[in-house]
Design brief:
418 residues, alpha+beta, Cytochrome p450, globular
């Protein structure tokens, strides 16, 4: 890894696409935090924060927002005109709950929140357990599998499809569109990636628009029906917002959870943790899930804009400046977590920022936690002697920190019954 660190000038040069970095960013985080926890990341071109106290505060600081064009023009920001070929992708971005600020954000989030309240989410536990068993039934006798493809991916995809009210059988197509769109968030995007993402966004939006219209005459107990009901009430929700919200939830609803499950399984195997111990009961399972999320979070970089001239922690930021919050670095800050690289599920409290904080706190956090708490114990119970088949490596996608694959073996002939 080539890390150039100017502590006095608080400047860092580090290629986010360096395999040595994205495969293990924690060594770089530790060095940066020790020398300059607030630093200008030359490769990205904006100031970043690696200390837990700063990241936690900035996630909640209303002087910063996810969007800036509601208070400044592109000319004032010095931005070029939008790229015409990215129009389908940009259209979805503009209507995205993740990019909105109050009052639009508040209105839309309140509508979506209904599907993610505790009592609704908890009802999904039996369904998640059944899915986990079904997936293992499909490959248990093989003795070896890629757990990302065979286990970590299909479960969250099926769950979010059920929650929304879309048929599971179209999941693979939606997953393909999602992956092509998510490539836009990696560092150094090329024109080819942009074209692929734009086409995926167009196809995804066209499908979702047609599906939503077909469902207007077939309302059920699902999120699409709730949004369609809100759309029919003038002023509450537009069709574009409905389509974009469904796409966002399908994308975010599987992306982070796939990586959370995969990263957690890797951590357990890599550190030789005892699944029977850490998943002994509901209380220990809950604590283990929180610590697994802290140790290897699925999202590492969250950006925001200064909505006015701001001074924070001695740094003066101009209105319109972008900042980067390093969630993965904050979660291993020795100033907040004793022995931060160790697995210690007894941490209480455990104020990790794996799901963010403030108004943009992950709306699906309860669901992601439940999926981990249900699926991981079943995985290790059903596949005794689970171990790496080869060394797992992370994807070339620094923002979304997750494994390319998790090839694993288990004891042949061992009981894998439910």
């Amino acid at each position: 890894m080539t890390l150039t660190l100017d502590a006095a000038g608080r400047r860092v040069r580090l290629d986010p696409r360096d395999p040595a970095f994205f495969d293990d960013p924690y060594r770089a985080y530790a060095a940066i935090r020790a020398a300059a926890p607030t630093f200008f990341w030359e490769d990205y071109g904006f100031w970043c924060f690696a200390a837990h106290a700063d990241v936690s505060a900035l996630l909640r600081d209303k002087r910063f927002g996810r969007q800036i064009l509601h208070v400044m023009s592109r000319d004032e920001l010095g931005w070029p005109a939008p790229k015409p070929h990215l129009a389908p992708f940009d259209a979805l971005e503009r209507q995205s709950l993740l990019e909105m600020e109050p009052p639009e954000h508040t209105r839309l989030r309140n509508l979506v929140n209904r599907a993610f309240v505790s009592r609704q989410v908890e009802k999904l536990a039996p369904r998640i357990a059944a899915l986990a068993h079904q997936r293992i039934d499909a490959f248990a006798r093989d003795g070896e599998a890629d757990l990302i493809e065979a286990f970590a991916t299909p479960i969250p995809v099926a769950v979010i499809m059920d929650l929304l009210g879309a048929p599971r059988e179209i999941g693979p197509q939606l997953l393909d569109w999602s992956h092509r769109m998510m490539a836009m968030y990696q560092f150094g995007v090329t024109r080819a990636v942009e074209d692929i993402a734009a086409n995926a966004a167009r196809e995804f939006a066209d499908f979702m628009r047609g599906y939503a219209r077909a469902r207007r005459a077939d309302l059920r107990d699902d999120l699409i029906s709730q949004l369609l009901a809100a759309e029919s009430e003038e002023g509450k929700l537009s069709e574009d917002e409905l389509v974009t919200t469904c796409i966002l939830l399908l994308n975010a609803g599987h992306e982070a959870t796939v990586h959370a499950i995969g990263n957690a399984a890797k951590t357990i195997l890599e550190r030789r943790l005892d699944p029977q111990d850490i998943f002994a009961d509901a209380k220990t399972t809950e604590a283990a899930v929180e610590e697994l999320l802290r140790l290897d979070a699925p999202l590492h970089l969250f950006t925001r804009y200064a909505l006015d001239d701001v001074e924070f922690s001695g740094l003066r930021l101009r209105k319109g400046q972008k900042i980067g919050l390093l969630l993965g670095a904050a979660n291993r800050d020795v100033a907040r977590f004793a022995d931060p690289d160790a697995f210690q599920p007894g941490r209480d409290p455990n104020p990790h920022v794996a799901f963010g904080a403030g108004i943009h706190f992950c709306i699906g956090a309860r669901l992601a936690r439940l999926e981990m708490a249900v699926a991981l114990p079943i995985l290790f119970q059903r596949l005794p002697g689970l171990r790496f088949a080869n060394r797992p490596r992370y994807r070339d996608a620094f923002h979304f920190h997750g494994l390319e694959a998790l090839a694993a073996r288990w004891d042949q002939g061992a009981p894998t019954r439910r």
